Amino acid sequence: MSMVEDCRLIELPRIARDEGNITVIEGRAHVPFDVQRVYYLYDVPGGESRGGHGHRELQQVIVSAMGSFDVTIDDGSSRRTFTLNRAFYGLYMPKLLWRELSNFSSGGVCLVLASMVYSETDYIRDYDEFLSVKKSA
Ligand code: TYD
Q: Per the residue annotation, which of 6, 37, 48, 53 is the catalytic one?
């Protein structure tokens, strides 16, 4: 069963040049799954929060492509908050964890690499339901 300790920061490759940097993410090579979907959150008002939910099967890597925000991970018994503020770090999250994004800096961009295409049935949007799914997992 996934626990907070199973989340980890992945240092992504960085091609650094005076004229600007490139970070590249290849599925299986730099993240531990095939990337089926990429989405990004942007135009989030400064200080805003979002993303209180869990996923039954989805694995994700979350990157702050611009600015900063906090990711709080909850496994039903413990919580940990990661501050993401560099574009060359990705936070790997296995399935069945509750996550909340908060403290967005204005202009922040949250890039998410996901192991599955979008499926509403994969979401657990109620925290009590999340706890009971964790108990029976
Ligand atoms: P959601 O993941 O619930 O965002 P948050 O928890 O941060 O508010 O997504 C918000 C809405 O966008 C929801 O109605 C579903 C839709 N959506 C898609 O259609 N496809 C996607 O890949 C994602 C991530 C969201």
A: 53
| pLDDT exceeds cutoff 90 at 98 | yes
Task: Give SS3 for 135.
Answer: helix
CA of 58 to the centre of ligand 1 (A): 13
> Nearest Cα to 98, choosing from 137, 67, 121, 129?
129
Burial class (CB in 10 A: 0-12, 13-18, 19+), 40: exposed
* pLDDT > 90 fraction of the chain, expressed in percent and rounded: 97
The closest residue, in CA terms, to atom 8 on ligand 1 is: 51
Architecture per CATH, domain 4-136, reads as Sandwich (2.60)
Q: What is the domain partition of the chain in residue ranges?
A: 4-136
Q: Is 30 a catalytic residue?
A: no
